[in-house]
Structure formats: structure tokens, C-alpha cells
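Predicting holo structure, siroheme bound.
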Amino acid sequence: MTWTPVCPLPDLQPERGACALVAGEQVAVFKAHDGALYAIGNQDPFSGAFVLSRGIVGTRNGEPTVASPMHKQVFSLVSGVCLDDPGTVIPTFQIRVTMGMVEVSVK
Amino acid sequence: MTRVLIIGNGPTAHRLASALTDKGFTGTVTILGEEPRGAYDRVALTSYLTEGRDLAYPEISGVEVIKGVKATSIDPQAKTVNGTIPYDVLVLATGSAPFVPPVSGRELDGCHVYRTIDDLDAIRTSAARATTGVVVGGGLLGLEAADALRGLGLETHIVEMSPWLMPRQVDEGGGAVLKRHVEALGLTVHTSSGVLGIEGHEKVTGLRTPDTLIEAQVVVFSAGIRPRDELARAAGLAVGERGGIVVDDGMRTSDPAIYAVGECALHEGQVYGLVAPCMTMAETAADRIMGGAAAFTGADLSTKLKLLGVEVAQFGAMSGALDVTYLDPVSGVYKKLFVSDDASTLLGGICVGDAAPYATLRPFVGAALPAAPSDLLFSPVAVELPGDAPVCSCNGVTKNDVTEAIKKHDLTDVAGVKSCTRAGTTCGSCLPLLKKILTESGVATGTGLCEHFAHSRAELFKIVQVRGITTFTQLIDEHGTGRGCDICKPVVASILASLNNGHVLEGEQAALQDTNDHFLANLQRNGTYSIVPRIPGGEITPEKLIVIGEVARDFGLYTKITGGQRIDLFGARVEELPRIWRRLVDAGFESGHAYGKALRTVKSCVGSTWCRYGVQDAVTMAIDLELRYRGLRAPHKLKSAVSGCARECAEARSKDFGIIATEKGWNLYVGGNGGFTPRHADLLVQDVDTETLIRTIDRFLMFYVRTADRLQRTAAWLQELDGGLERLREILVDDVLGICADLDAQMAAHVVTYADEWRATLDDPVKLSRFVSFVNAPGTPDPSISFTTERDQIKPELLQVTSR
Ligand code: SRM
Ligand SMILES: Cc1cc2nc3c(=O)[nH]c(=O)nc-3n(C[C@H](O)[C@H](O)[C@H](O)COP(=O)(O)OP(=O)(O)OC[C@H]3O[C@@H](n4cnc5c(N)ncnc54)[C@H](O)[C@@H]3O)c2cc1C
Ligand code: SF4
Ligand code: FES
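Done. C-alpha cells:
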């Protein structure tokens, strides 16, 4: 498993995503209100645009989510499943903090 | 294992295969289709031409589809098709073919039918080199084809044999109203007419009727359909005298191993040319194939559609002992109800121009009328549907089915009802009814915003204002649950902004904003953003125009004059936005709030300064108003316009607040809307001076900001306001609620605290740090964004969609 440093933890705004380029892959990273970190693919599968990091973060029935800014489909930050269309799943990635640095692994 | 083979791959075949799969059929299902593509939504065919819609149905997993292969023979003894494909159960779903009358010249280049995607492609090609087109047949499909020809830019004629259009759905009176609508669109209608022959060598040059020669290069035949029973006939199955494969209530043909469904089937002497009965037949056959006892017992031929922008509907019988007619020739509305001789039972109805009775009254066909027939036609009364009333005829769903599904699965929206009951998934005409049932079931009536707040927007506004709440976290901790979503967060952001809580990107507020507000720009389809500087009143100096031109050129942006009298620059990446705005701000521009639920533009006409008719200075007024209300956050966007005289060149009456100059002062109109549901604004105050005008607008806007629902424009808000315009006038002018001083103070606070969001952003390194594509590579542009060129400007390259 390769970990790529992305940014210092305080640079992530709570409930607002950021996008990182990791080994050619666009990864959307989020810090929830409780501090939990999530990483998912940045591509919105419905429009094809790489914009999920710019969506609104929230919860649905307690599950942390992000809504695509394009047409508002909601995705689980935990599983990548689209809660409005459960047949559609986007990739999720491992994320952790090492010595204050947020790190993501795509493999 | 049972092998089911379906011939034909239209909507009926598709439904049959999906019904089998849904019911857990364990055998194999193979579909043989002659068209070169998978099954698609034929009902929506025209939208393929007019909107480029993708009509393909989703593939059904586990079902084998053989495309582009025509079945040419059936051997019922050997149980094979085309000599080689074996079956245990065969289903004919071959649909029907357009009938082309045997007139001379019908094979010429330029003659078409209107049935498949290939037909439409061919029509499009012919139309490209044509100026005039004729549709033979003025029925439902003929009118649809005529609309398509018109959409392709052809001067269009319709030739119909009957004395009026759509003879199968409307009577003579309705036909006359319909004809007037169609002619108003510029189409030429020839009724009581026919085709003698098509003129031309190789290519069509004209169409001859008994009265005239119509010069035309495209002819579309839409003179009825014939069931495709040729395979069945050759295989020795029973067929009707006038065509159609004879089936019983279980959709079985004269050979017990062969079924027929859809438009090719003849049941009790009837062939059905509408999709709803075809779907019922498919469900019936699926049940029978799996050993069930479902029966098809005929179907309702009611229809409701919108053709050439005109609503047309017919339900139940088309005649009766008594009838009641409502005719408004001015607005082109014709409604007729047929009732029993004692006027107590509804037999049927016809509507042209306003199909509202279709949804409310169709379920009452054969039952007691819910009110006097004339009341039902003149003023729409609220009627409660009986439980067994059919709600969605396409999918055979009753009101009870819907209410049970709502209860059983805790459904909260139309989408849920669609996926659980299938209602609303075909023609869509029952969607308003589904919504109504949800409301009746007490589901959608809750005014709560979403799962996080049980309050409406207006209630939250009060809570925030009265309790002095300044953060989302405090509001949701004390008055909500969870951490919010894309619905409630922007609402709270807007409320906080309306109550002057500083910059929209300040602190926690930033995380509440939609992407547009977050980047102070509008998101485009490829992930880039657009930029709209404010150009108050549409007035701009040559110097400023040059700056916009230079910025667009230097950053390679697409430039377009908008419908709001200003200029939009498209195709900027997030990291370019601050640099672009630095140049614009330095040249004196500020944010145009094209991204915000806020004041957009105040359009103006040139007014008395230049125009020889103008009676007041419209431009100065527009600029003053735009500068006064710029940056005001509201439940939805706000638009305005000022016209210099009653000629109304600024289209003020289509705006949320519109001002028209009079000899004596100004008229203020409120609650106008373009958009989805256009509405003309209502006159609130007349001939007032400038001071009164502005005070009234201040109050109007603040009252709207306080009390409207999320995403409710002023038009819808005013329509729902108890007491309507009269009440609004009492509140804003006579101050009956005693809130005017408050409203005035709130607007005054807005005006003095306004600051340009972009200038403030450029001055703040923390806010600027968000404008990067990648946190770990701030200098790298997003590689997924690329452009081609069209008419010397950039255009986004299409993106790969990974889900549908
Ligand atoms: C740019 C422009 C089209 C153009 O090239 O002319 C435009 C573009 C958009 N319009 Fe519009 N509208 C534009 C004038 C209009 C007008 C005409 C007008 O304002 O005089 C209307 C009808 C008038 C009205 O609003 O009553 C109009 C009715 C809509 C609607 C429907 C609103 C409704 O009440 O039904 C939407 C959807 C919405 O807001 O929910 C919409 C939404 C949009 C959005 C924001 C869609 C989106 O979310 O991406 C478009 C993005 C703008 C962008 O990227 O910059 N646009 N739009 C026009 C910008 C005017 C401006 O300078 O600000
Ligand atoms: C423009 C248009 C608008 C319409 N609008 C409406 C509407 O608003 N409301 C409504 O209720 N209905 C509407 N209809 C009618 C509706 O489309 C039909 O009722 C429906 O398509 C019938 O479905 P089907 O599968 O039985 O037949 P079809 O859709 O005709 O499909 C049959 C398929 O079988 C194929 N086929 C035939 N013979 C063979 C063979 N021997 N081998 C292989 N394949 C074969 C055909 O190529 C075709 O693809 C409209 C139709 C058209 C053309
Ligand atoms: S609205 Fe009146 S003043 Fe304005 S341009 Fe038209 S005619 Fe002239
Ligand atoms: S009536 Fe056609 S989808 Fe419901």
C-alpha cells in the first residue's frame, strides 16, 4: 500500500471537500463535522465531470454524504454508493493522518 | 428449462422481458428485433428529433437480445423461428406498421413514415434540403409528425380526410378549437381533403389534393397503422379480417405455444394503438407464461397529450344522453362532459386547450359525478378520488395501490412511488395525480424542509431572526437533527445572508454554499465556471466593454450576451477565477450574482432620454434599483425591469418586480415570472412618485425574503399568499400587520452593509486559497477539462458518463 501526502490536516475545511491528484487519479477528500476523514473518486458518474469534491456535505439517516454539485445526486462518503440510485457506486479510497499530514492511498 | 423467444423488440417486448425477470422466471429469454438498436421508448419518439433525447430503455440483465435480425418464418411443428432458433414458448410482439395509402408517387425520395428512429433520421436528412413538408393524416401521430416538421424549419401542411383534426379523440367543436391553435402556430390545415397523388421524378416536388397542389419536398404518411401479422398469417395462426393476431384473455394465439402481445394483437375484435394496454398485455402474458391466470379484459382508450403546445384529452365515451360544454374561443379552451340522461353518471369527456378535467374526472367515468357537471367544467373543484380509481392507466395502478405503497414503504416523494408501483414511469401524465395522493396521504403536506428540519423556510427565518442565531451548527443543534444536506444548508446560508451576517464565504458559512456561491461563479457541464460581471441596467461604457473583451481574449473564454442584458464569460477553471476577477474588479466591475439566489438584473429600455415615446428616465431608475438591491439574498433569484412607457420594451411585467413609467410617475407590478411557468405581474401600486415606488419595493422584497418557501419565486409565493394581491397591498401599503417599519429598517441595513463579494474575496488570502483544482498540486490545471472550437470560440469537449 502506497500512501501519498495530500495536505496538512488543518487545511481541510470541515464539511467542505478538496480534490487531490494521486497517481493520476482525482480523489475528493472530506473532513466531516466530527473530524472523520473520507476519500472518494472525484468524478460524478452521472455528468462525467470531476466535481464531487465541490458538493455539499451532510448526512442522510445519519450516514455521511456528499451531493453532486451538478445534478444533486447524493453519495455515501463511507461506501461510495449513490443513495438516490443504489446501482451506481463510485470508488472509495483509504485515508489517514500521519504526523499532521492527510494521506491517501489509491492502491 | 423453458426457452421463451420474443419476436419484435418494441416497448411491449421490453416490458414482457422485464416482467419475466422481475417475477423470477427461471428459463431463458431471447428477443429478436429487426431494428439495428435495442428497445427504446417509441412514445417519446419525437423528442429524439426535437431534443436529441436518448430513448433507449435500460438493458435487462440475463435477457439475450439479437439486434438487426428479422424473423421471416415460424415453424409451429418444429418450434423454430427462421428454421434454426428453437423455442418452447414464442411471443409475437411485432407491433404495427404505418399504413401508406396506395397513391402514385409514394415511393419517391422524400416520402416517409413516422415510426422508428431510422425514419426520423431519414426525415431529418430530407428536411435539410426542403422548405415545405406535408403530413398526410391529422390524427394524434400526424399532428406529432407535423410538429416535428415545423421544428425542422419546414413550412408545414396537414391533410386530413375527416372534417376536423383528431377525429378519434375529439368531436367537431373540439376539432374547431384545435384547428385554430394549430393554425396560430403557422401550420396550414386542409380538412375534408385527401391525397390524389405525389408529384415528382425521383424526388418529391408536391402533393395533389382534390382542391389544390401543395408544393413540397417532404411527405410524411401518418394515415393510420396496421398490425404486423404477416408472420402469424404465414404460420397459419388465426388473424382478424382486418388484421391483427387473434388472442384470448391470456394473450394466447390459436397455437397454445404462441402468444401475441402489443399492437399486433387482436383481442375481442380490438387492436390497441396505445402503449398502456400493450403494457397490460405484456404483464398478462408474463404471468401466464409462469403458470398464472392473469387475464386481459380490454382497456380504456383514454388519452391525454400535449401536441403543438396544446393540451388534448379524451376519456370514457365520446357521446352520451346529455352533454355540457364549456367553450372559451378567446383563449382556445373547449371542454365537454357526457353524462347519463339523469345527469348523475359521468360517461366521458373531451378537452382541448386545458386538460385539467382529465386528471380529476377520468377516475369517475361510470360513477356518480362528484359535483354538478357545469361546476366541474367552469371552476375546478377539489374532488376526492375513490380508492379503486385508476390513477396510472399506462401501468394499471389504482389509487389504493399508491396509498398502500406509500404506507408500506414509508414513501415520501413521487420518485419513491414511481419505483415501487411503476405508476408515472411511462407517459408521465399521471404525475400531478401522484403528487396529490402523496399530499392527501399526509406525506408531502409537511412543511419541513428535509429530514434535518421539521420547519419551513419561513419558520426557520423567524427562529434565526428572533433567537439571533448566527451559525448553522447552532441552528441544527438546537432545532434540527443530523448535519444537514444540499437542501437545508443553502437555505440556512441564504437566511443568514439576508440577515446581514457578513461575507457568504466567512467561516462556517462557506461550507453551506452550493458550489456556485462557493466559487462565486456558475458551474458549467464540464466542471468549469462562468463569470457574469454586473452591468446595471444594461448600460456600459466602451472602456468597460473593451476590458471584458480583453479579459475574455487573454483567458480564452467563450463570450455571450445573455438574456439579462449583460455579458457572460464561460469556461474558466477554478484557479483562474481570482486572476480574472482581479482584472475585472480593477476596471470597476463587481459581482453580478448570477450564481446566487439573489438579485440578478434590472433590465431597462432606453427610456425618455433617447426614445421618442419615453415618459420617464427608465435607465436611471433601473440602475438605481439594481444598485440598491444588489447582493440581496432571497429564497430564489430576483429579477426586475424598468420600461420608459407602456410599450414595455423592457418586458417588466415578466419580472418579480417590474416598473412601467406613466405620465404621472411609476406603476409597480409584482409577481411576474418567465421560466417554467410564465406569469404576468400584477399591478400593486399605480402612478406613484419615485420615493413611494422605492419604499414599496423595499417592503415587497423584504416581506418575500422573510416569508417565502425555499426556491419559491415571487410569482408562486404571491399565488399562495392568503388573500392574494389585495392582502399584499394591505400589508405593504396600509401596514395592517404593523411590520413596515421593520421591513424598512431591514432593507436600509442591507443597503448600507452591501459590499462586493469578489473584491472582499480578492483581499482575503484565506478565501482565495480555495480556488485551486488540486490541494496537493495548486499549479496543475484539471486534466479532464478540454475544449474544441466552434464559430471561433471555445466549446467544452463532451465528458464520458460512467452511469445512466
Ligand atoms: C446566461 C443566461 C442565458 C443566456 O445566455 O442568455 C441564463 C443561464 C442560466 N439560467 Fe436562466 N439564464 C439567463 C436568463 C434567463 C431568463 C431571461 C431574463 O432574465 O430576462 C429567464 C426567464 C425569466 C425568469 O427568470 O423569470 C431565465 C430562467 C431560468 C430559470 C427558470 C426560473 C423559473 O422561475 O422558472 C432557471 C432555473 C432556476 O433558476 O431554477 C434558470 C437557470 C439558469 C442557470 C443558472 C442554470 C444553471 O444552474 O446552470 C444558467 C447558468 C448561467 C451561467 O452559467 O452563467 N434560468 N433565465 C441568462 C443570464 C441572464 C443574466 O444576465 O443574468
Ligand atoms: C410517434 C409516435 C408517438 C406515439 N405516442 C403515443 C402516446 O403519446 N401515447 C400512447 O399511448 N402511445 C403512443 N404511441 C404508440 C406506441 O408507441 C405503441 O403503442 C407502442 O410502441 C406499441 O409497442 P409494441 O412493442 O407493441 O410495438 P412496436 O413499438 O411497433 O414494436 C415492434 C417492434 O417489432 C419489430 N418487428 C416487427 N416485426 C418483426 C419481425 N418479423 N422480426 C423482428 N422484429 C420485428 C419492429 O421493428 C419494432 O421494433 C406513439 C407511437 C408513435 C410512432
Ligand atoms: S418602452 Fe417606451 S420608452 Fe422604452 S424604448 Fe419602448 S417605446 Fe421607448
Ligand atoms: S398514466 Fe401514463 S405513466 Fe401513468
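The mean pLDDT of chain A is 92.
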